[in-house]
Description:
Structural class: mainly beta
Helix content: under 10%
Number of helices: 1
Radius of gyration: 22 Å
Strand content: 35-45%
Strand order of the largest sheet: 5-6-7-8-9
Amino acid sequence: MNYFALLLLLAGAPAVAEVLVPVRTIRAKxxxxxxxxxxxxxxxxxxxxQMADVVGxxxxxxxxxxxxxYGKDIGPPALISRNEIVPLIFSSGGLHIVTEGRALDxxxxxxxxxxxxLSSRSTVTGYVMSDGTIEVR
Length: 137
């Protein structure tokens, strides 16, 4: 056995895993469907490999055809858009205040969002609830 064959035998064959790649360019803010991605065999560390990980998610950046999809490139669909008027809710003990604010960015449920309180013109940070309201703590 020659040296190269022995080295290949000891090192093993390169690992190949399934990765997802778009079949077309997917623009940022688009929802990804099952028809938008395919599975390919490749050795790409960190790339997503399960269809369930991407279908129904929103592209956070442009995803180009043939390039692997990474977890940082996608996220849950945004419930709130920039400049949208949203209800702000503050509760503490027996105190419950509801007012309106203007979203300063886009956000999905569970994310934090900066919002300008329209009454006081101050900027607050709150959590986006699943119903689209902002809970200020």
